[in-house]
Request: fold
Amino acid sequence: GENVEQHPSTLSVQEGDSAVIKCTYSDSASNYFPWYKQELGKGPQLIIDIRSNVGEKKDQRIAVTLNKTAKHFSLHITETQPEDSAVYFCAASGPGYSSASKIIFGSGTRLSIRP
Amino acid sequence: GAGVSQSPSNKVTEKGKDVELRCDPISGHTALYWYRQSLGQGLEFLIYFQGNSAPDKSGLPSDRFSAERTGGSVSTLTIQRTQQEDSAVYLCASSYTGQRGDTQYFGPGTRLTVL
Reply:
């Protein structure tokens, strides 16, 4: 089945700097890649997603890139702010899964923004 | 509108007891998912309900775990004869159609502690 690996597990950056989180997936048929942000005591929330027909997508300070050949995708956060501190999860989904919308999650990255 | 709600928010139980966790999805959402999140870990898929179709139970870790969804809305996850390794946050999510790429909206989770 699909396997999603996420790095790093923890990341600390200075406020205002950029943060990059990387994920790889194993199933070449995967075609949907969402990113979730989980704040303390809350459930994960979708922040951005990308489908396999595009290589990059941006939404204000966050962007996601996808390299289908290498089977990896990355989350980029620019001009980081204290409220960006959270755990971030990448995920992948595709037609080979037993359920149409079952998503396989990475292990998460705890991002800390230093003031 | 109201998001996904879960109850209780916290549950402490003794080893060997049964527990029931409740999820109220967003009104009108046809798909409902249960995940387990152990301390510092990613999200582990447990079970998926889509409309009137048979649920996808492929993620349930043992026959002590079961779930039902009544009337296509509220769902309960039941863990029988709880073990200490069952301690985790149990997250529920719902999506509008359950189709691939459909955003999953998560509830705040139930933190289960088995003593």
Notes: The two ends of chain A are 41 Å apart (CA to CA). The mean pLDDT of chain A is 91. Chain A has no helices and eleven strands.
